[in-house]
């Protein structure tokens, strides 16, 4: 076929694009059946108060062990779920899992942190879930149904959401915060980082993207940016979570810069619920 087209170089690209498309289509199909067969899982990664060393929060992260391909990253399948209209279903499922876990944590009595606050579970919410007719009220209602205080939950949104200045986005965020659910701005610094959005939006936490944290010990400009983000966030009344903390050196630099919370492999990877509970039990007081 390529030969028949002669020297048309364009055709060299066709097979790989087709292959990618077919692969995406296949993954989307597999994801649908994984959802139907209850093959997804939710893992929990601790978030540590850098001043006290205590685990005070955890991020819920969806996991998919594909029967033939092994683990597939949510960074790969969440965008597919968005494209094929499966994101609301997955998002609702993760929410129910994570709130169920938060409730068990709350009841176990091991939720009490040194500050006396409840351990908070943070749940990612894709921008797409704000734009499609997803009913936010059902999340708020669900908390009442299971009897979980809203402070036990936070949602993480990305900057992509903020670029869209649709009033319904702002009102949906306000709806959550009025209900007592805190809001985190995820991956801060990777997008357009429009500072103006920060003062307009009702949010509680800012999560510094791991790309800054990764390079802050080797690159002075990344350290400067990280310190500036922390200082600015504090002036705006926000608290800061650093993502991707992998070394003691990074943790120490972040502590020195006044960063409130740290999350990363230095503390722990994301764990299945039972292992997360065990980690809490052996975590030094
Ligand atoms: P994110 O929300 O920024 O989550 C943090 C990611 O960084 C997680 O990747 C986590 O495993 C990883 N991470 C944590 N500590 C370290 C570290 O020290 N070093 C490095 N290199 N990575 C670290 P994960 O679980 O693969 O998730 C990737 C992305 O997929 C998430 O980024 C989030 O955007 C999305 N995602 C995950 N679960 C959900 C979900 O339930 N719903 C939605 N809408 N998106 C999700
Ligand atoms: Mg997140
Ligand atoms: Mg993040
Ligand atoms: Mg990220």
Shape: globular
SSE pattern, N- to C-terminal = HEEEHHEHHEHHEHEHHEHEH
Write out the distinct hetero groups bound to the structure.
ligand C2E, magnesium ion
The value of Rg in angstroms is: 21 Å
Largest sheet: 8 strands, mixed, barrel
First-last Cα distance? 68 Å
Strand order of the largest sheet: 1-2-4-5-6-7-8-9
Percent of residues in beta strands: 15-25%
Number of helices: 12
Structural class: alpha/beta
Spans of at least 5 consecutive residues whose pLDDT stays below 50 are: 112-116
What's the mean pLDDT score? 88
Q: Give the number of DSSP strands.
A: 9
Helical coverage, percent range: 40-55%
Q: What's the gist of this structure?
A:
Helix content is 48%, strand content 19%. The N and C termini lie far apart (68 Å).
Explained architecture:
Helix 3 (87-108) packs parallel to helix 5 (136-146). A hairpin with a 3-residue loop joins strand 2 (55-66) and strand 3. The chain has helices at residues 10-36, 74-83, 87-108, 128-131, 136-146, 159-163, 167-178, 195-200, 210-215, 220-235, 248-256, 273-282, and strands spanning 40-49, 55-66, 70-72, 120-124, 153-158, 182-188, 205-208, 239-242, 261-262. Residues 112-116 have low confidence and may be disordered. By secondary structure, the protein is α/β, with parallel strands linked by helices. The longest helix has 27 residues, at 10-36. An 8-stranded mixed beta barrel has the order 1-2-4-5-6-7-8-9, surrounded by 5 helices. It binds ligand C2E and magnesium ion (3 copies). One magnesium ion is lined by residues 186-187, 207, 243.
């Amino acid at each position: 076929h390529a030969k028949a087209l002669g020297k048309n170089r364009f055709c060299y690209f066709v097979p790989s694009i087709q292959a990618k498309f077919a692969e995406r289509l296949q993954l989307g199909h597999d994801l649908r059946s994984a959802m139907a067969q209850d093959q997804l899982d939710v893992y929990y990664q601790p978030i540590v108060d850098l001043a006290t060393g205590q685990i005070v929060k955890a991020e819920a992260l969806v996991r998919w062990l594909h029967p033939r391909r092994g683990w597939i990253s949510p960074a790969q399948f969440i965008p597919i779920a968005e494209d094929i209209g499966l994101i609301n279903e997955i998002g609702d499922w993760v929410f129910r899992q994570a709130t169920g876990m938060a409730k068990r944590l709350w009841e176990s009595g091991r939720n009490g942190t040194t500050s006396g606050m409840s351990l908070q579970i943070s749940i990612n919410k894709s921008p797409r879930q704000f734009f499609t007719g997803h009913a936010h009220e059902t999340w708020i209602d669900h908390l009442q149904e299971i009897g979980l205080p809203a402070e036990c939950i936070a949602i993480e949104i990305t900057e992509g959401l903020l670029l869209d200045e649709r009033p319904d986005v702002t009102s949906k965020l306000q709806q959550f915060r009025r209900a007592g659910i805190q809001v985190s701005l995820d991956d801060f610094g990777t997008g357009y980082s429009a500072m103006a959005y920060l003062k307009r939006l009702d949010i509680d936490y800012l999560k510094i993207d791991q790309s800054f944290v990764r390079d802050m010990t080797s690159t002075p400009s990344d350290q400067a940016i990280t310190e500036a983000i922390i200082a600015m966030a504090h002036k705006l009344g926000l608290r800061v979570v650093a993502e991707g903390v992998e070394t003691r050196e990074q943790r120490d630099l972040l502590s020195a810069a006044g960063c409130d919370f740290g999350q990363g492999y230095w503390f722990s990877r994301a764990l299945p619920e039972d292992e997360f509970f065990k980690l809490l039990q052996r975590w030094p007081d």
